[in-house]
Specification:
Mean pLDDT of chain C: 92
Number of helices of chain C: 18
Strand content of chain C: 15-25%
Shape of chain C: globular
Largest sheet of chain C: 7 strands, mixed
Low-confidence stretches of chain B: none
CATH superfamily of the largest domain in chain C: Aldehyde oxidase/xanthine dehydrogenase, molybdopterin binding domain
CATH topology of the largest domain in chain B: Ubiquitin-like (UB roll)
Helix content of chain C: 25-40%
Chains: A mainly alpha, B alpha+beta, C alpha+beta
Distance between the termini of chain C: 69 Å
Number of domains of chain B: 2
Number of strands of chain C: 24
CATH class of the largest domain in chain B: Alpha Beta
Oligomer: heterotrimer
Shape of chain B: globular
Number of helices of chain B: 5
Mean pLDDT of chain B: 96
Structural class of chain C: alpha+beta
Radius of gyration of chain C: 27 Å
Helix content of chain B: 25-40%
CATH superfamily of the largest domain in chain B: Beta-grasp domain
Strand order of the largest sheet of chain C: 9-10-7-17-14-15-16
Largest sheet of chain B: 5 strands, mixed
CATH architecture of the largest domain in chain C: 2-Layer Sandwich
Distance between the termini of chain B: 49 Å
Radius of gyration of chain B: 15 Å
CATH class of the largest domain in chain C: Alpha Beta
Number of strands of chain B: 5
CATH architecture of the largest domain in chain B: Roll
Largest interface: B-C, 56 and 63 residues
């Protein structure tokens, strides 16, 4: 008897849920419009839209390597399958040429397509919902004045039930907090440092930094309470940008600004992987905005506590010759102050101390790495002091393995660091030995797990259009 | 002291194990092809093959090469009996000063060994690590395409 | 001073008034000879000028030597730089001698053996050396025929020559070797030669494969770096971080105890180290560098402020051209300012030299462009008699002008002298080559032009340029870094302008176009904040870039097609022919300019120095609007070099010039931080990579059989730069006047 009642109630509840789902999943279509003429948009608005699109990294996901700008086709691999970015060029049939400004704004705020279907949150509308009306207007003006490209993105490859968009309604119910229309523009200072406030607006909104830098739950949403706690993206580690930051020298706002502006920072490292596109895009952003982003992220990282500082200094205590805190202090300041025309002068020991070491990793380091990484040339042209490298103090071996295997290739004829890769001369055992050695010698932290898997994964990574692949960097 | 296998010959090399391969090749083994261009892995002039893969010999210490096979341009052929890639570069007169050319040839050789059907785009991308200051790029590409044909002929006896 | 007097200077040679004395140490037949300087007081009246370098070196056997066993050796004072002259000069000799190409030996620049032809520079190898060998070989052949006629008792006209033998009608045959005697060819050249008719050429004009390529693609010995004499030791320099720094302290004792180190050599601020093995030398260099303390004083100019700075320096004004035109009409006037940064040679192989000091004599194997002037400078630096210093040219990587080679030779000399009896190989590092090579000078040009009333033709032209010297050679010891660093240093010589018609900063500043009124003013700037000297094409690169860019601006103003506009201002038929050929082969008329998004087409033309080769280039670029990245997609060039000796070699040079000039134009500028040069390697001074290489480049040669050789090695630099700039202007609708035309500059101009 009770079982029957429970069963009926369960079915009713299920039906109610399903009804809610269906209800939540249904949005009206917005009628298509004739594509607005490019000349109808105010030039200043378009220019502002360009900057905002750069901060939002639209091109990174919506432009395939070697493909036309904003024409879509980039595959984003998720635990649920692969989702392909759509064509957001103003092509009337295959792009957003027929979208009204209202339709565009709804997509940004609610993740709803013009025809009323739900967009997958691989498009981070859970962040873009914070974008102000004015900024959406500017973004719309920018996108609608791009060359229209006819391109149909590949169909998504998602497994059941995720291949039905209606499931996103449930996801939205659980995880989407849209910006109320009545909320004032978030970039106005409400309290505290106006730059931090502006940074908050940019970072949490268009920048969607947390989308990569936050671990996700089983439903693919950012874990609440773990904002900026670090995550893995396309086989690269996106470091924690909160109090769990593993940087040896605590990030300051100025250091972050240097990194975002130049693509490297002498006491942390060089942007690689998916961050390359971010840095490249940020070139279009004005200094104030980049500073604001840096200020906000620095505020998330927070000032190093006495304890965290001590831990970091202690962890560096037992490392090979060359690096003392005084040296670090001396290295702050001008990027090129230490550059020597006779750059064969060496600050530290030439690595001879490690000759004949039993540890194969130590021997490889001494033979292949020390010459550049203990050399006198300042970054970005010299090798970073490995005792400072984020790649070595980070939570996984991923980034280090990438760089050891592939190096840093030249980017056409652009000024920037070049590091040879060692993947063709070191076998997997040698790479593993080197990686283990670097971790031990330069951090005193616990060794990583999964080093061999990381090596295998990086070696076998396909030359796909995956965001952040080295091939993608070389192509553009 | 270590045994270095170069062009299928074992050599006893008395050198500090940190010595970059380039200097052992040039000074101890008296091989001319691999060149000093930068010592930084930026220009490709020093490129040789290690187990068939192209590496910058200027930043590869011999310590890493135990049990591996090094191939230099000299190992591919001679002026009297040139390998297809050498013949191709001679036919196309693909050199001005010629200093960068051996490195280009070794990388191309590795590519064509792994991917005989490599197209022009793939060839260009493969050569990206290499610099040529004289501007011989067009001829280098033509020579590599020519080498493809010659290699195919050598493989199949096809006289096309 | 010794009995051998050197009076020649580069300037004098170019002006044709220099006289040359040389000493052939080993060869017994040739005598040291004084030749009076024409025009000097008491000098005999000048005889008719001899062609090419025969002017300075008139004896036939200075150029062509025939041994009794029939070995024929051709001597040239020029050097193989990778431009293929070893092959081309041998072709000339083979043709005019009627000897087999493969049987000839060619000896290049060697102060003991070959004529002194100054520098292999200025695209003059064919004009000077080629012409000398052309005539000398023809005259030698005539002499040999005369001797055979005497022996055969047959009139000379009935004799033929083939494969280095004279053949009589009845079949009797004597090889050249059997004909020569000690003094037979030791005669002064005559002004005129019995040259072969071009129609009879068998080898001149043929694309003979280069003689040096087989070794270069099979690991044969080809470069100075490949020399490995017994007892060879390795050396490295330690240079200061900035110009003119003083070495205040170095503790060398520990370094001297490092494995394999033979000697640390210090003289004032000159510091180097020699070791048994190369890696030992490198490690010692690093340690020595870390142990050295320098007092720095250099102040380097801010790149952004360079144009203002240059215009503010004290100048010697040179009126290059002053042609008054008709009184100004009411036509439109246009003005523009163009700038160029310092550009590096960027030789792929850092400079290297091998030196041996033995028995009070010094031999240096070096890739200097000028063994004689470099020999003189080194001898002066070492206070040695010139005949005790021998410089032998051995190839380096492409130098494109005055790079570190001369200095590396001097460095090696000082090091070798410190370790007599051991051959010392001194290798510069990449950073040293980038930091210490003398760059192509920064320049600024202000140009304006007035159109006629109808707005169709240019009636007045005003051109003002500011530039340092484009050559610090020859300069004696004072031009050498080593000599400037010694405890008893040599002062750098005062810089001098190279006079027109060759010119330095003003090279190619006179447009070839017919403008009724035209003025060119060269503000020659002696003060050099940055070390500069000759870079391929010298001022020709910048001046042609400016003139041809501005011609396009004027053509736009006149609403005329750029090609037609140029033709309408030219008389020279050869100029017109290269222009129409390039345009036609490119399909210029069919291209729709300024309409296809992201595509642009550009055209440019120049005659190098207004007296060497003619070159016209049409090109197409593609531009990515989002990033501003630009790539040349296609280029078609036409070149007129007079009589072509090796068409493939010529094409190679023009193709290479297009690539190199494109790289300079789109990417390159030397950087500094106010004290030190900071562009020290390929990461900090990037150049063209394959991702920027075009899809297609064609070179069409207009051969002029029988016409004088016209220098071509630098003819492509200027036109390529302007063609690219004009194509970018076409693609974007914006004009870029500041080099390099980088992606960032393009993006900033085209906006979103």
């Amino acid at each position: 008897m009770w079982a029957k009642i429970v069963a009926v109630v369960a079915c009713l509840l299920l039906a109610l849920c399903a009804g809610l789902f269906v209800f939540a999943a249904r949005h009206p279509a917005i009628a298509p419009i004739a594509r607005p003429a490019a000349g109808s948009f105010d030039t200043a608005l378009v220019k502002r839209g360009a900057v905002l699109a750069a901060i939002g990294d639209c091109a990174t996901c919506h432009t395939a390597p070697g493909g036309a700008a904003f024409a879509g086709g980039v595959g984003v691999v998720t635990p649920f399958g692969t989702i392909f970015s759509t064509n957001i060029s103003p092509d009337a049939e295959t792009g957003i040429g027929g979208w009204s400004e209202a339709a565009f704004e709804r997509a940004m705020r609610q993740g709803v397509r013009r025809d009323g279907a739900l967009l997958y949150p691989a498009f981070p509308y859970d962040h873009f919902t914070l974008v102000s009306d004015d900024d959406n207007r500017a973004l719309y003006a920018f996108l609608m004045t791009r060359p229209a490209v006819r391109n149909v993105a590949p169909a998504n490859d998602l497994r059941f039930p995720f291949n039905h968009r209606a499931v996103v309604a449930g996801w939205n119910l659980l995880f989407l907090r849209t910006r109320p229309r009545s909320e004032p523009r978030s970039d106005t200072a409400t309290s505290g440092d106006p730059s931090v406030a502006r940074g908050r607006y940019l970072v949490e909104g268009l920048g969607h930094c947390a989308a990569c830098h936050t671990p996700r739950n089983v439903l693919g949403a950012e874990k609440s309470g773990a904002g900026f706690g670090g995550a893995t993206i396309d086989g690269w580690t996106a470091y924690a940008l909160n109090t769990r930051s593993t940087a040896v020298v605590p990030w300051t706002a100025d250091a972050l600004y240097q990194y975002l502006r130049n693509g490297f920072e002498a006491q942390h490292g060089t942007a690689r992987g998916p961050m390359l596109d971010v840095i490249a895009n940020l070139r279009a952003a004005p200094d104030d905005d980049v500073r604001a982003i840096a200020d906000y992220v620095a505020a998330q990282i927070g000032k190093p506590t006495r304890r965290s500082e001590q831990i970091q200094l202690t962890e560096r205590a037992g490392q090979p010759p060359a690096r003392q805190e005084a040296d670090l202090q001396a290295q702050r300041g001008s990027l090129i102050a230490a550059t020597s025309a006779d750059s064969q002068a060496y600050r530290g020991a030439p690595g001879a101390a490690l000759d004949g070491a039993a540890d194969e990793g130590a021997a490889i380091y001494a033979a292949a790495c020390a010459d550049c990484h203990q050399g006198p040339r300042a970054m970005p042209y010299g090798g970073i002091d490995l005792g400072l490298s984020s790649a070595i103090t980070g939570p996984t071996a991923d980034n280090l393995v990438h760089i050891v295997l592939h190096g840093i290739p030249a980017d056409g004829a652009t000024r920037g660091p070049i590091m040879p890769g060692f993947g063709d001369v070191l076998d997997d055992n040698q790479v593993g030995a080197l990686v283990r050695y670097l971790r031990a010698a330069f951090t005193g932290k616990q060794t990583w797990t999964g080093i061999d898997n990381a090596i295998h994964a990086v070696r076998s990574a396909q030359h796909t259009a995956a965001v952040g692949s080295p091939e993608r960097q070389a192509g553009q | 002291m270590m045994i270095l296998n170069v062009n299928d010959q074992p050599h006893n090399v008395e050198a500090d194990s940190r010595t970059p391969l380039l200097y052992v090749l040039r000074d101890d083994l008296k091989l001319n092809a691999a060149k000093f261009g930068c010592g930084l892995g930026q220009c490709g002039a020093c490129t040789v093959l290690v187990d068939g893969k192209p590496v910058f010999s200027c930043v590869t210490p011999i310590a890493l090469l135990a049990g591996k096979k090094v191939t230099t341009l000299e190992g591919l052929g001679t002026a009297q009996e040139p390998a297809p890639i050498q013949r191709a570069f001679m036919e196309e007169q693909a050199a001005q000063c010629g200093y960068c050319i051996p490195g280009m040839m070794m990388r191309a050789q590795a590519l064509l060994q792994a991917n005989p059907q490599a197209n022009d785009t793939e060839i260009r991308k493969t050569l990206e690590p290499h610099l040529c200051r004289c501007g011989t790029h067009m001829r280098i590409l033509r020579a590599i395409h020519r080498a493809q044909v010659l290699m195919k002929t050598a493989r199949t006896g096809d006289a096309r | 001073m010794s009995g051998n007097i050197r009076i020649v200077s580069r300037r004098a040679v170019l002006a044709g008034s220099g006289a040359l004395v040389f000493s052939f140490g080993a060869a017994p037949r040739v005598l040291a000879q004084d030749a009076a300087v024409p025009g000097a007081p008491g000098a005999p009246a000048p005889s008719p000028p001899l062609p090419g370098s025969l002017k300075q070196t008139p004896m036939l056997d200075s150029w062509i030597r025939i041994d009794a066993d029939g070995t024929i050796t051709v001597c040239t004072g020029k050097a193989e730089l990778g431009q293929g002259i070893k092959t081309a000069l041998t072709q000339i000799a083979a043709e005019q001698l009627d000897a087999d190409f493969g049987a000839l030996k060619l000896v290049t620049a060697d102060t003991t053996v070959t004529p002194d032809e100054g520098y292999t520079a200025g695209s003059q190898s064919m004009q000077e050396s080629g012409t000398a060998i052309l005539n000398a070989a023809a005259q030698v052949r005539q002499i040999l025929i005369g001797e055979a006629a005497r022996r055969f008792g047959v009139p000379a006209e009935q004799l033929k020559t083939q494969s280095a033998a004279v053949i009589a009608p009845d079949g009797r045959r004597t090889g050249y070797g059997a004909l020569v005697s000690a003094e037979l060819v030791h005669v002064q050249a005559a002004p005129k030669s019995p040259l072969k008719a071009p129609a009879d050429y068998k080898i001149m004009g043929q694309p003979v494969p280069r003689v040096d390529i087989p070794a270069k693609v099979t690991g044969g010995a080809a470069y100075v770096q490949d020399l490995r004499p017994d007892g060879l030791v390795h050396a490295r320099m330690v240079r200061s971080p900035s110009y003119g720094a003083a070495l205040t302290y170095v503790e060398a004792k520990t370094i001297e105890k490092m494995p394999g180190v033979l000697k640390v050599v210090r003289d004032g601020s000159f510091l180097g180290v020699i070791a048994e093995r190369e890696f030992q030398a490198i490690e010692a260099m690093r340690a020595l560098s870390a142990a050295a303390r320098w007092q720095e004083s250099a102040k380097l100019p801010d790149a952004d402020k360079l144009p203002v700075l240059l215009q503010g320096l004290a100048a010697e004004d040179i009126k290059v051209l002053d042609r008054a035109g008709p009184s100004a009409g009411n036509g439109k006037t246009l003005s523009a300012t163009y700038t160029r940064p310092y550009v590096a040679h960027g030789s792929i192989g850092p400079s290297c030299a091998l030196a041996l000091y033995q028995d009070n004599a010094l031999t240096i194997w070096t890739h200097t462009q000028g063994v004689y002037p470099d020999r003189d400078a080194i001898a002066e630096m070492l206070h040695m008699p010139k005949d005790k210093v021998r410089l032998i040219h051995a190839e380096g990587s492409g130098c494109y002008g005055h790079n570190g080679a001369d200095d590396a030779a001097a460095d090696a000399a000082l090091l070798a002298r410190a370790l007599p009896g051991r051959p010392v190989r001194l290798q510069w590092t990449r950073e040293q080559e980038h930091a210490w090579e003398p760059y192509g000078p920064a320049m600024i040009v202000k140009v304006s032009a007035a159109m006629d009333q109808a707005g169709e033709k240019i009636v007045d032209w005003d051109y003002v340029l500011w530039s340092n010297t484009h050559s610090m050679r020859p300069g004696g010891a004072g031009s050498l870094i080593a000599a400037q660093s010694l405890a008893q240093p040599f002062a750098p010589p005062p810089p001098r302008p190279i006079p027109m018609p060759a010119g330095g900063g003003d090279r190619n500043s006179i447009p070839l176009y017919k403008f009724p009124g035209a003025r060119v003013l060269h503000h020659f700037l002696p003060e050099m904040p940055v070390r500069v000297s000759a870079l391929r094409a010298l001022g020709g690169y910048m001046n042609v870039f400016v003139i041809e860019s501005f011609m396009d601006e004027l053509a736009l103003e006149a609403q005329a097609d750029p090609v037609e506009f140029r033709l309408n201002h030219l008389d020279d038929p050869r100029a017109k022919e290269v222009i129409t050929t390039a345009a036609q082969r490119f399909g210029w008329a069919e291209k729709k300019r300024g309409t296809a998004p992201g595509r642009g087409y550009g055209f440019a033309f120049a005659r190098y120095k207004n007296l060497a080769a003619y070159c016209a280039i049409a090109c197409e670029v593609e531009l990515d609007h989002g990033s501003g990245r630009t790539r040349m997609v296609r280029a078609v060039a036409a070149v007129d070099s007079g009589q072509v000796v090796n068409p493939d070699g010529l094409k190679n040079q023009i193709e290479g010039a297009i690539m190199q000039s494109m790289s300079w134009t789109l990417f390159e500028s030397v950087t500094n931080d106010g004290k030190r040069i900071t562009s020290l390697d390929w990461a900090s001074y990037p150049i063209l990579r394959f991702s920027g290489v075009p899809d297609a480049v064609e070179v069409h040669i207009i051969n002029r059989p029988g016409q004088p050789f016209l220098g071509s090695g630098e003819a492509g630099q200027g036109p390529a730069a302007a063609a690219v700039a004009n194509a970018i202007a076409d693609a974007t609708g914006k004009r870029f006047r500041d080099l390099p035309i980088t992606r960032e500059r393009i993006k900033a101009a085209i906006g979103v």
